[in-house]
């Protein structure tokens, strides 16, 4: 093994989430000593040292990281709060607490931060309303004139880089396709749960979104591709510290994708029908049905709220604006990875069946 690679060690903050799990797998496969830091206890991951801490509490973070000296830190965690003001306070503190603790060791060379397209669309409280950027989104566009916890996280990253002397990258992903039970934003898994419930009741698989999303162009981000981009940015010599959009490289319309997802999940598709049909309405009161389904099929999670995030998928599929990104910056710098989005969905659904998260 190359000695320079051998000297690398990774701290993945939020290693139990969609992005973090995929990143841990990528790092372990490349031979990195890898530590996951997360808020909750979870099943062990092969080759990963698992640590727990309350990321909002600096003393808890300091205690958890006392015996670590990472060379590379990857921040993939966030915490949803009722208002954007609270999102800013809490999520900025999480980044600050981790980077102040890790940075004082003097070993950190690079920090990669995952944010997302709310950078261009605005916060949850004003998602896709008011002023937004034209598609495709470009990394050098100025921030919107609205409070946004992604901006606060970036500010903490830049301040820590100045204090501790490391390089950095920001990775603005679109909706991530990947495996993680209990994740707060998980469209692929949510659609799989919707399909399982529709199949159990003999109902059509009804598109929950609006006409703009049904007919407009969009893209998504495979968790594995995002992981590869983060490692690439963290280890490629000569790259400037800057932000990168992170998407699969293809674009699609939901009117094309929806029937193909339905076929993968074994349900009858029903497209946009004149008005949005949010999942929070379609799936209201289905917790007991899921519990019975889980018992009958031997599923690993009987709590529907840990499998599906109706609110997040509703939010994505009811944006009033078209949403996709430009990937020229990372491609021009040498990141050439590409993932077909339908193939990414198919791989996720197969994993969910194999892991007994959804019925076979």
UniProtKB/TrEMBL annotation:
Entry-linked SUPFAM superfamilies: NAD(P)-binding Rossmann-fold domains
Domain PRISE-like Rossmann-fold: 70-359
InterPro entries (UniProt xref): NAD(P)-bd_dom_sf (IPR036291), PRISE-like_Rossmann-fold (IPR055222)
Domain of life of the source: Bacteria
Provenance organism: Streptomyces minutiscleroticus
Descriptive protein name: NAD dependent epimerase/dehydratase
Pfam family, one: PRISE
């Amino acid at each position: 093994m190359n000695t320079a690679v051998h000297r690398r060690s990774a701290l993945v903050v939020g290693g139990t989430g969609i992005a973090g799990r995929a990143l841990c797998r990528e790092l372990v496969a490349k031979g990195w000593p890898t530590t996951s830091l997360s808020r909750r206890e979870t099943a062990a991951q092969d080759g990963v040292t698992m640590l727990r801490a309350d990321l909002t509490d600096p003393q808890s973070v300091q205690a958890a990281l006392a015996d670590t000296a990472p060379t590379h830190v990857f921040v993939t965690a966030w915490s949803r709060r009722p208002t954007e003001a609270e999102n800013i306070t809490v999520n900025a503190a999480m980044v600050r607490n981790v980077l102040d603790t890790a940075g004082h060791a003097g070993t950190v060379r690079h920090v990669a931060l995952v944010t997302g397209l709310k950078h261009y669309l605005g916060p949850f409280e004003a998602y896709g309303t008011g002023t937004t950027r034209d598609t495709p989104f470009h990394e050098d566009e100025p921030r919107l004139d609205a409070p946004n916890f992604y901006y606060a996280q970036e500010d903490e990253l830049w301040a820590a880089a100045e204090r501790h002397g490391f390089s950095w990258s920001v990775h603005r992903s679109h909706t991530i396709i990947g495996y993680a039970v209990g994740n707060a934003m998980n469209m692929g898994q949510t659609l799989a749960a919707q399909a399982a419930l529709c199949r159990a009741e003999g109902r059509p698989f009804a598109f929950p979104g609006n006409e703009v999303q049904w007919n407009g162009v969009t893209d998504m981000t495979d968790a594995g591709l995002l992981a590869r981009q983060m490692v690439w940015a963290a280890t490629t010599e000569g790259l400037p510290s800057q932000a990168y959009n992170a998407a699969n490289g293809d674009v699609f319309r939901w009117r094309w994708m929806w029937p193909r997802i339905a076929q993968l999940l074994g349900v009858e598709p029903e497209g946009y029908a004149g008005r949005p049909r949010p999942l929070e309405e379609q799936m209201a009161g289905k917790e007991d049905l899921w519990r019975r389904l889980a018992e009958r099929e031997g599923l690993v999670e009987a709590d529907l709220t840990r499998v599906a995030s109706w609110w997040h998928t509703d939010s994505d599929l009811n944006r009033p604006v078209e949403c996709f990104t430009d990937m020229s910056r990372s491609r021009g710098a040498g990141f050439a990875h590409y993932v077909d989005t339908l193939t990414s969905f198919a791989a996720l659904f197969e994993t969910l069946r194999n892991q007994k998260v959804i019925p076979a």
